[in-house]
Write a structure and sequence with these properties.
This protein is an alpha+beta fold. Among the domains are: 106 residues, no CATH class; 99 residues, Immunoglobulin-like, CATH 2.60.40. Helices cover 26% and strands 31% of the residues. The chain has six helices and 17 strands. The strands form three sheets. The chain has an eight-stranded antiparallel beta sheet, with no helix packed on it. The protein has a seven-stranded mixed beta sheet with strand order 1-17-3-4-15-16-2. Strand 15 and strand 16 form a beta hairpin.
Length: 324
């Protein structure tokens, strides 16, 4: 006899709990939506399980300082972070991070406007320079790091800012002609309107090296110093569970199937506004939640909370009272 644990078994349990034996009352597709909604969104937020905690890693690119966090694949990340195997400084505070690694802009006059919109070509002198970036939660918003500006005949400021991919956009995000090489500083830009007078450039120069610090902010990893080559970056994270799509597919741990069935049933009853049904099912859902948590609790019980003194008492891997 096979112990139940698959999506098909979860469907059957949901039908029993919600009093929906017929596909006319509740289709398999609808049940799957309830199950996966609970499994993907509610489940990992309500309880943090040892089995969903795993290593998260990514690889740097030369002269690229920002890396998006895959927010739909992972829930959260934790320090400590390791870059090329070295334990690295971690911060989630811009104030703290940029006090150590300030964003100082270099401003220079690069050209004189000739009464046309361009193109204007020149080379930045303080290079390489940081590039713009976007947030994974706001992909249409570009945070530029290079700014070119000049005035037209009416005294209106004409702005070109980088799009992070070597191109230019206006202040409102409208594309402009031209390009920028962030490493060599070679620039070609065409403004929206004719420019007269001084054309100024603002950029943030840096010296590339092995990164030693990470800022995690706005679902983006900012590395300093900016990488000079590829490095592996590692940290711990909580993964988002993978949806159940096939009838014979089981959750990550087979024992979770009843918890998912009760969770999906709760959502069905909520949509039906079945208050009495919810009152009956909630104690059973909470019981399943305690059972699911039990493995994590037992796993963590044997481990003491880590402190600065931990290595001094765990034989044989002690550090001889900080002697090395």
């Amino acid at each position: 006899m096979t112990v139940p644990s698959t999506l098909s078994d979860i469907r059957s349990k949901v039908r029993l709990l919600t009093g929906s034996p017929s596909v006319i009352q509740l289709t398999d597709v609808q049940i799957d939506e309830y199950v996966n909604t609970y499994y993907t969104y509610d489940f990992p937020e309500q309880i943090k399980l040892f089995n969903l905690r795993e290593e998260f890693e990514f690889y740097t690119q030369p002269n690229v300082d920002t890396y998006p966090f895959p927010v739909n694949e992972y829930r959260t990340v934790f320090p400590e972070a390791y870059i090329a195997g070295y334990q690295s400084f971690w911060s989630q505070s811009q104030e703290q991070f940029y006090r150590i690694y300030p964003q100082l802009e270099f401003i220079e006059e690069v050209r004189q406007g000739d009464g046309t919109a361009g193109p204007y070509s020149f080379t930045l002198t303080n290079i390489p320079c940081l590039r713009g970036y976007t947030s994974p939660t706001s992909p249409d918003t570009i945070f530029s790091q290079v700014l070119i500006n000049g005035e037209d005949a009416l005294g209106t400021n004409q702005i070109a800012r980088d799009d992070g991919n070597g191109g230019w956009i206006q202040e409102d995000g409208t594309p402009l002609g031209g390009s920028i090489d962030y490493v060599t500083g070679a620039v070609s830009v065409t403004f929206a309107n004719a420019v007269t007078g001084d054309i100024n450039a603002q950029n943030i120069p840096y010296v590339a090296a092995r990164p030693q610090a990470i800022l995690f902010f706005n679902d983006i990893f900012f590395l300093r110093p900016v990488p000079d080559q590829s490095y592996k970056v590692q940290m711990e994270s909580y993964r988002t569970p993978t949806q159940l799509l096939a009838s014979d597919q089981a959750p990550l741990l087979n024992e979770w199937w009843q918890y998912l069935a009760y969770g999906a049933s709760k959502k069905v009853l909520e949509d039906r506004l079945d208050v009495d049904g919810l009152a009956k099912i909630m104690p059973l859902l909470e019981e399943q939640q305690r059972l699911v948590l039990r493995r994590t609790i037992v796993q963590q019980t044997a481990e003491r909370t880590a402190t600065i003194y931990t290595e001094q008492v765990q034989f044989p891997y002690n550090n001889n009272f900080n002697s090395f």
